[in-house]
Amino acid sequence: EPEVTQTPSHQVTQMGQEVILRCVPISNHLYFYWYRQILGQKVEFLVSFYNNEISEKSEIFDDQFSVERPDGSNFTLKIRSTKLEDSAMYFCASSAGTSGRNLYFGPGTRLTVT
Amino acid sequence: AQSVTQLGSHVSVSEGALVLLRCNYSSSVPPYLFWYVQYPNQGLQLLLKYTTGATLVKGINGFEAEFKKSETSFHLTKPSAHMSDAAEYFCAVSTGANSKLTFGKGITLSVRP
What pLDDT does A98 receive? Predict the structure, then answer.
């Protein structure tokens, strides 16, 4: 069965550093998403991406965040200057966009900001 | 705006017992409703979903859920728990085919031998 993959599985960075989290969505999918889960809290929507542009973003997704689909297969989330409160599990997801709406999640990247 | 309420953080059942995980939602438009399961160190896996049509939805691993509009509920059930069902379960709502998901805070299911 096709799956969404994410790298790295765990990233440790110092406060103020830039990080790029990488995702490879399922190949024929058209809609791409990032969610995050701070330890012990609910999964929160960050951003959705379709047709090479952001279609929706949450208030969490401020100017420090950006997304890109640089080469037709990868989907990246960049955090320009990490803060301690960015420590979380980041999930990538993709969807074919057809009715019925199956959203497939990757295994997540655990980001630890020290 | 939409929201999901999952009361409690932990449910413990005996193997073979009924599993009931509660979910209530709030949505200003007809909702799409989902249950996801997360096993340790893994991503979120779709258990089942309700979009339109039949209100009793069957999913993987013997789980089912019933959409009750009058009660704004979408409770997850399984007649007989198995040890492998131990995981975290998330209820989620969206308002459109490709709209964002809004998750509940999740509930941890433990299964006692």
Answer: 54
